[in-house]
Amino acid sequence: MAASQAKWTKNVGIAEGDLKVVLFHSRNKDNREVEGFHERRQSFLWYDSLENRDRLFERFDDFVRHGVKGENSRLYMSLNARRPEKVKKALIIELLEKDNLRIGRINSIAASVAARKECAWGNAWLIDFDDHNEDHLNEAVENERRNDYDKRPGFRLLVLLH
Question: How many CB atoms lie within 10 A of CB 69?
Answer without folding.
Answer: 8
